[in-house]
Every structure is written in structure tokens, then in C-alpha cells.
Design brief:
Helices cover about 40% and strands about 20% of the residues. It is of the alpha/beta class. The strands form 4 sheets. A 7-stranded mixed beta sheet has the order 4-12-11-10-7-5-6, sandwiched between helices. A 4-stranded mixed beta sheet has the order 1-2-3-15. Strands 13-14-17-16 form a 4-stranded antiparallel beta sheet. The longest helix has 22 residues. The protein binds pyridoxal-5'-phosphate (PLP). The site of pyridoxal-5'-phosphate has 15 residues, from α5.
Length: about 400
């Protein structure tokens, strides 16, 4: 801990826990103390920690070839691309491979400018799209943006869930609208019915591109392979990362061919994109999601979790609202959640916060019902603790 603390940027806020191993939805420290992991690598570990298929695929690939740039053809990459476009909606068939979420967004923003010849981007209040300067310009949170202004010009933020507010700000310069179907970092807010359809129609009417950021919602998280399937709306560009490769760093920007092809040779590129090891891990991970029906599992367990949390809400005045889709769950409290998150950690449950007041749960989709029950019990204890601290006397 001392070494890491002394030599890590202070921008990374750490918990006093060392994790050395994990399987499924459980991780453990050097003493063997176990934690139920409802952080899930911030929505990365959808197939669980150290999924046997992913391990096997990485082991096999690591002996054959670790890296070859995407300027040369590779079998592991071709296999992965075939797999990926097999699960994305019909017209989304052209892929640019990246190494992280923010890179997938950067690529989408460049495509939007190139395809339309315009530079305006409409994003949403509470939206999160990454932290590099382009994607940060799409991210809403003032605390993340302010210290680094001026950002990229041309970004406007409108109310999430409100079609009319998009119509109001569209101009001659608008290139694209970027939206998370379920806002993650912003506190788990689900697109209201009719919203995405309305946005799609506005974009079509005005010749504007629609970008879905499914970096957090993709790969089974919300109970469908991609969250867009809940509404049946297909964007022009889809940004992916997080759960794509079973924990291996990877991302992808997937677009309609005509849209992707607006990028001319050498106008965009990266060094590590399409790395064969990442591709092998991703193929195995997608196979696991399909074969083990993890999206369906997320839907079923998500419903159970919402039910159990609603019961908890009836017992605890402090819980303002419980919401979620699949295994992407937010528990909004009437008070800051910091102490509850810390107390949960001490009791063997890892959870995230989203903003000041929301506890966010992003467990691996392989989590068992017993583990979820245990998680609920611990959450209940933590909230009980907050309440008893607030009682006078
Ligand atoms: C995490 C996240 C990103 C950024 O991904 P990084 O890999 O951290 O760069 C972008 N958009 C959404 C919706 C995310 O959840």
C-alpha cells in the first residue's frame, strides 16, 4: 500500500483494501478475506473474474502472438470482428478497435465531424463519456470539466429524457447527438419510454448522427446484449468498451459502413487497437455471455434485486429511490453515501457511488442469488448504521 500510495497520482482515490485474486463475483485480499464484488471493475467484469474461457483464450493466444498492429491482418482479430458484428444491430458492421471507453468516444466524435462536415455535438446533463479532452467535452460534470477549460468548442448539454430540449438547440452546425441509453456515472438514469425513438426521429429529420455510448450498458449489463434492444432504436455509431473483453482493456467504435467510411485512410489510428490478445479475450468473453445466457440472467437477477431493494426501501426512510435495468442498479439516499460505501467495504461488500447520493451496483452477471442476498443484507446493515447515527441522543 505504501509503495502504491507514494507513487500513484493523487487523482486516484483509493480504498484501503488490497485485492490479489478473484473468481466469479468474489475477490479476496492477501489474508484471504473475501469481498462480494458489486463494483465489477466499474462494469468491466460482466463474465466474472477469471472466467475459465477467457483464461484459456488468453493462454492460447499469448503463446502464438501477443501483438501485431492492425495494419497487418490477424486471425484472432478477424474471428473477433465476425463475433462482434454478429451481435451488434444489423447495419452496424464497420468497426474501429480501441483500448478504452474514452478512445471509443473520441473516434465517434471524429467520425461525426468528418461525416457531416459540422462540429456541434449535443450531449446530456449528467452524461458521462470519458475524461480525455474530446470526450470530456461531452461529459457534463462541472467538477471534471472546469479545471481543464477551455475544452473542445461546439458541445451543448440538454436535459436527459427530454426530446424537445434537443430540438431547441439544434443548429446548422450540429453534427451529432451523443446519449447513454442508461446514464451510469450520472446516477443510473434510464431513458424514458419514447425518448430514444424521438431522438432518432429528430436526428433523421435534420441529417444529424445519433451516437449511443454503451460503454457501460453493453454486453449484457442491462438484461440485453445492448441496452438499445430495450427500445429497438439503432444509432449511427455505437461506442463500446468496459465489458467487451472479460477484463482485458479494449474498446470499439462500431458504425454504419457509410458513416465509418467518411474517415479516409490515416485520418485516425492507434498503436494497440486490435491487439490479438485483447481480441482473443473478447471473443471468449462474448461467447461466455451468449452461451451462459448472461443477459437473461442479468434481467432476472436485476428484477430480484430491485424487488429486494424496494423492500429495504420500505424499512428505511433514508432510501429515496431505487432504480435500475438489469444488473445496473442505483440506490439513491437522502444523504451522502460515502460512509455507507466505506462501511460496506469493511463488511465485505464492494459497491460504487455515482455522484454524492447514489450507491451504484454493477456486479458481475454471474453473481449467485446467495451472493446477492448477502449483498442486500450488508447494504441494509450499512443504511441502518447511517440511520442510527442520525437519530438524536
Ligand atoms: C466508463 C465510461 C466511459 C469512459 O471509459 P474509459 O475506459 O474509462 O475511458 C465512457 N462512457 C461511459 C458511458 C462510461 O461508463
Amino acid at each position: 500500500m505504501t509503495i502504491e500510495s507514494n507513487h500513484t497520482s493523487k487523482t486516484i482515490v483509493k480504498r484501503p483494501v488490497i485485492i490479489v485474486g478473484g473468481r466469479g463475483a468474489v475477490v479476496w485480499d492477501p489474508q484471504g478475506k473475501e469481498y462480494i464484488d458489486c463494483i465489477g471493475g466499474h462494469g468491466v467484469c460482466n463474465v466474472g473474474h477469471c472466467h475459465p474461457k477467457v483464461i484459456e483464450a488468453i493462454e492460447k493466444q499469448v503463446r502464438r502472438l501477443i501483438h501485431i498492429p492492425d495494419s497487418l491482418y490477424n486471425d484472432a482479430r478477424a474471428t473477433f470482428l465476425q463475433k462482434l458484428i454478429g451481435i451488434t444491430p444489423g447495419e452496424l458492421t464497420s468497426v474501429f478497435l480501441t483500448n478504452s471507453g474514452t478512445e471509443s468516444v473520441e473516434c465517434a466524435l471524429k467520425i461525426a465531424r468528418r461525416y457531416t462536415g459540422k462540429h456541434g455535438i449535443i450531449a446530456t446533463i449528467r452524461g458521462f463519456h470519458g475524461r480525455t479532452l474530446g470526450s470530456l467535452s461531452a461529459t457534463w460534470k462541472p467538477e471534471y470539466r472546469k479545471p481543464f477549460e477551455p475544452l473542445v468548442p461546439g458541445f451543448t448539454h440538454v436535459k436527459f429524457g427530454d426530446v424537445g430540449s434537443i430540438e431547441e438547440v439544434i443548429s446548422e452546425d450540429t453534427a451529432a447527438v451523443i446519449i447513454e441509453p442508461v446514464q451510469g456515472e450520472g446516477g443510473v438514469h434510464i431513458a424514458p419510454n419514447g425518448y430514444l425513438k424521438g431522438v432518432r426521429e429528430i436526428c433523421d429529420d435534420h441529417g444529424i448522427l445519433l451516437i449511443f455510448d454503451e460503454i457501460q450498458t453493453g454486453f449484457g449489463r442491462t438484461g440485453k446484449m445492448f441496452a438499445l434492444e430495450h427500445w429497438g432504436i439503432v444509432p449511427d455509431i455505437l461506442c463500446l468498451a468496459k465489458g467487451i473483453a472479460g477484463g482485458f482493456p479494449m474498446g470499439a467504435t462500431v458504425a454504419k459502413e457509410e458513416v465509418m467510411d467518411s474517415l479516409r485512410p490515416l485520418e485516425h489510428g492507434n498503436t494497440f487497437g486490435g491487439n490479438p490478445l485483447a481480441c482473443a479475450a473478447a471473443t471468449a468473453s462474448i461467447d461466455a455471455i451468449i452461451e451462459e445466457k448472461l443477459a437473461e440472467r442479468a434481467a432476472k437477477l436485476g428484477r430480484k434485486l430491485l424487488r429486494d431493494l424496494s423492500t429495504l426501501q420500505k424499512e428505511h426512510e433514508l432510501i429515496r429511490e431505487v432504480r435500475g435495468l438489469g444488473l445496473m442498479i442505483g440506490v439513491e439516499l437522502r444523504v451522502p453515501v460515502k460512509d455507507a460505501v466505506r462501511s460496506a467495504t469493511e463488511r465485505g461488500l464492494l459497491v460504487l457511488s455515482a455522484g454524492l447520493n447514489v450507491i451504484r451496483l454493477l456486479p458481475p452477471l454471474v453473481i449467485t442469488e446467495n451472493q446477492l442476498d448477502r449483498a442486500i443484507t450488508i447494504l441494509g446493515e450499512c443504511i441502518e448504521m447511517l440511520e442510527s447515527e442520525r437519530r438524536p441522543g
